[in-house]
Amino acid sequence: MVMTSTIDFPSAQLLIGGQWRGAASGQTLWLENPSDGSELAPIARGDAADIDAAVQAARDALSGEWGRLTAAERGRLLSRIGIAVAAQADELARLEALDVGKPLKQGRADALALARYLEFYGGACDKVHGETLPYQPGYTVLTLREPHGVTAHIVPWNYPMQIVGRSVGAALAMGNACVLKPAEEACLTVLAFARIAQQAGLPAGALNVVTGTGEEAGAALSAHPGIDHISFTGSVATGALVQAAAAANVVPVTLELGGKSPQIVFADADVDAALPFLVNAGIQNAGQTCSAASRILVERPLYAQVMARMAERYAALRVGPAMSDLDLGPVISRRQRGLIEHFLGLVEGSGIAVAAQGALVVGAPTGGHYVRPTLLAHVPPEHALAQQEIFGPVQVLIPFDGEAEALAIANGTPFGLVAGVWTRDGARQMRMARALRCGQVFINNYGAGGGVELPFGGVKHSGHGREKGFEALYGFGALKTVAIHHG
Ligand code: NAD
Asked: How far is CA 192 from the centre of its chain?
């Protein structure tokens, strides 16, 4: 048990078919507290045998109590789970602070987002329907939207609650049964959520959770022949492996991968309105956000002003232990910190300037994985710092002249997840919205993924398929056409 939690769940056990139990191998792994590097809690090291059992339990659920619920009953149940999650938001935030190193206010926002997904998808369950189609005389043709069956969900450590909400929430709403594999770096809120759902009445086997490593549990899940759909959120390299595994079994896969998202500030922009969005979308969750606005493109007449005003904000940022609830907590691991420091090492001798850095608070534990937020200026668009995903609190400033250059730079990376455009010119807003190659465009705002109602996903190496909104419900179902000849 995680003894300090008011949510009574066994951190070192898996949830399979409504039963909490250890990994078949009896093995465990340890989670780390990124704020001080201490051991936090053991988790079960599930592997192929546990995945097998979880897939079977999900299959059984489809023909059991879960599969027999009407859409309206599923909806009421999901809404009830959402209410229970919201009631535990403070405790979930505390668990996330310990496990991910997320400042408490961010963890609380994530818990409430999870609750909101369940509210949204709970309300949507009985609004999904097919159509009747015009065809030949003597026929009636209709379409049915049916669940895929058993859906696999592989999630990363950076937003466990939000990603479970958007992926599992939509899959359950469509009537699928889920097997969920959280990241080995952060599992506690996922396990706590499963316990809350169980206590709120989710039938056995509708949601199964198998913790473990990506190479063991993750690979076994994505290659399992009993899976009917895979939803993966994580890195490009792992996404490609998961897609290959899905191809071998010929099952659909949704990939939500990384990004190098730009916010583009034109010379006619309202800088006062833009500033908080420019900075927050870069440093939120210590920059470990797939839709982080890691590139800030500024039209030359405003470049010096935007740099100075962002630098002022950066200088006021404070980094420290998650429980202190500052602007930034630590990054997830020593390894992640090393990756970010490698990128920052590229600055030396490159002509790129460090425009400003935030500060680490006095007394932050030396074992914590802290990185000072860093604003870099005059970064050439083709430089690795402007091309590759750093996944840390580092933003690059890039000057441009005119719309064509802004577009070329914005579209000129392997990624295409989100973009922000700041301009008062209505015609330019529309031109940019159409010409940007990405899954979401925000005009005079920036949503870092946006609300639960807004379809989200990428193009190019940012992935394919859409989560959030109604679009996700359709993605978690298959369309069947029924043609009836009645003469
Ligand atoms: P990762 O790909 O290493 O891990 C993600 C998940 O995949 C984890 O659960 C992991 O255990 C599992 N996994 C690892 N190897 C596997 C394998 N061989 N087969 C199956 N599963 C395996 O990613 P990460 O480093 O944990 O997360 C950071 C990355 O995720 C970043 O690149 C970020 O941009 C991306 N991300 C994207 C989104 C999005 O919505 N687009 C959201 C969050 C994170």
From this structure: 18
Residues 373, 299, single domain; the answer is: yes
pLDDT confidence of residue 4: 52
Give residue for tokens 């940019």. 432
Q: How many domains does the chain have?
A: 2
Closest C-alpha residue for ligand 1 atom 43? 290
Closest ligand 1 atom, residue 237 Cα = 2
pLDDT digits (tens, 9 = 90+) for 310-368: 999 999 999 999 999 999 999 999 999 999 999 999 999 999 999 999 999 999 999 99
Cβ-proximal residues to 246 (8 Å cutoff; 6+ apart), any chain = 222, 230, 252, 253
Q: Which of 202, 30, 189, 78 is nearest to 452 (CA)?
A: 78
Q: What is the largest CA-CA distance in the chain?
A: 82
Specify whether 62 is located in the same domain as 130: yes
Q: Is the CB of 242 under 6 A from ligand 1?
A: yes
| CATH number of the domain that residue 224 is part of | 3.40.605.10
195-213 tens-digit pLDDT: 999 999 999 999 999 999 9
Interatomic CA distance for residues 433 and 280, integer angstroms: 22
- State whether 205 and 298 are in the same domain: no
Do 201 and 335 belong to one domain? Answer: no
Domain for residue 4, yes or no? no
Among 157, 235, 462, 468, which is best to mutate for testing ligand 1, by the most ligand atoms less than 8 A from CB?
A: 235
In a domain? residue 351: yes
- List 125, 178, 187, 290, catalytic entry: 290
Catalytic residue among 91, 96, 185, 256: 256
- What average pLDDT does the segment 215-225 reach? 98
Confidence at 7, pLDDT banded by 50, 70, 90 = confident
Q: Which of 256, 258, 284, 275 is nearest to 420 (CA)?
A: 275
54 and 40 together in one domain:
yes
Q: Does residue 241 have its Cβ closer than 6 Å to ligand 1?
A: yes
Instruction: Name the phi and psi angles at 142, rounded to 5.
Output: -135, 160
d(CA 210, CA 453): 28
What's the whole-model pTM score?
A: 0.97
Please check whether residues 324 and 346 belong to one and the same domain. Answer: yes
For residue 159, the ligand 1 atom closest to its alpha carbon is 43
Range of the domain at 369: 262-461
Decide if 486 is inside a domain.
no
Rg (C-alpha) for the chain, rounded Å, is 23
183 lines ligand 1 (CB under 6 A): yes
- Euclidean distance between CA atoms 339 and 375, whole angstroms: 17
Q: Show which of 213, 238, 257 is a domain's final residue.
A: 257
Is the same domain home to 290 and 327? yes
Distance 214 CA to ligand 1 centre (A): 9
Would the CB of 209 count as within 6 Å of ligand 1?
A: no
